[in-house]
Amino acid sequence: MDKFIKEGDFNWLMLPVPDINNDNPWMELIHVTNGNAYATDGHRMHVAPCKLDEGSYNPYELRECLDFERKPPTPTKSCGFDISKLHLKLIKQAAKAFNPASEVTASDFYVQNGFYGQLVPKDGNSRFQRIYVLEATFGMSTKGETILHVHTKDDGENLMYASDGERSFVVMGMKLDKENNCE
């Protein structure tokens, strides 16, 4: 049977799926639209190609179908939330980042406060949870050479986006208080 999603893609998608019983139940699902699967915890979103019917799926049911090579489940009842619109909104917010001057790699950042701390670009204009960026870039086919696009808006909100042609991710950074140099 042809798998509906690659094992590596599914594992990467599961990284931002929050624990069960959080305040936003739609975040506990994997959403499929236009041939892509989306997963988010509200701070980051991972997107990977997927051959499932459009709809929202319980990730643990999908895992079981992958593990035992079963036919995929039917989508869960509609949660009334369009995940592709959220992804598009995040990409539009980061749109100013899509220029050659915004391109950076992981080596353009320094680590602050250890492994679970923050990644800060050498210009200091933004901050990101290090673990989110590491998990996202590790899943990209280009690994350490992934080109990241970073944008900080005037209000201190910052975003990071990257795509390797198949997978993509958006990570929301920590909002910066420019006057006090802290988030």
> What characterizes the major β-sheet?
8 strands, antiparallel
The amount of beta strand, in percent, is 25-35%
Class by alpha and beta content: alpha+beta
Distance between the termini: 49 Å
Strands of the widest sheet, in order across it, are 4-1-2-3-11-10-9-5
Radius of gyration: 17 Å
Q: How large is the count of helical segments?
A: 4
| N-to-C order of helices and strands | HEEEEHHEEEEHEEE
Mean pLDDT: 78
Q: In total, how many beta strands?
A: 11
- Gross morphology: globular
What is the quaternary state of this protein? single chain
How helix-rich are the residues, as a percent range?
10-25%
Low-confidence stretches: 179-183
In short:
This protein has 183 residues and is α+β, with helices and mostly antiparallel strands.
Overall description:
The structure is a single chain. This protein has 183 residues and is an alpha+beta fold. Helix content is 20%, strand content 25%. It is built from 4 helices and 11 strands. It has helices at residues 7-14, 59-67, 83-93, 130-138; strands at 30-33, 36-40, 44-49, 55-57, 103-104, 109-112, 118-121, 128-129, 148-152, 158-163, 168-172. It has an 8-stranded antiparallel β-sheet, with helices on both faces. Strand 1 and strand 2 (36-40) form a beta hairpin. The longest helix is centred in the middle third of the chain and has 11 residues, at 83-93. The termini are far apart. Residues 179-183 have low confidence and may be disordered.
